[in-house]
Amino acid sequence: MGKGDMKSKRGKTHRGTFGKSRPRKNQNKATQKEQSQVTK
Predict the structure, then answer these.
(1) pLDDT score, position 32
(2) Mind spelling out the 3-state secondary structure of 1-40?
(3) b/e sequence 6-22, b meaning 16+ C-beta within 10 Å
(4) What confidence tens digit (pLDDT) does each residue in 3-18 have?
(5) Compositional bias of type Polar residues: which residue ranges (predicted)?
(6) pTM for the structure as a whole
(7) Where are the domains of the chain?
(8) Mean of the pLDDT values across residues 19-31?
(9) What torsion do the CA atoms of 13, 19, 24, 26 make, to the nearest 10 degrees?
């Protein structure tokens, strides 16, 4: 279990990917609506 292991958290941070062991941080719905209105 090291940097080369894609199923571990350390391997995901090393490659910069996301998955089950390293999920993306969820944004709450209020900030998503504000961002979508600004970009339009």
Answers:
(1) 60
(2) CCCCCCCCHHHHHHHCCCCCCCCCCCCCHHHHHHHHHHHC
(3) eeeeebbeeeeeeeeee
(4) 878 888 888 888 888 8
(5) 28-40
(6) 0.48
(7) 9-38
(8) 75
(9) -160
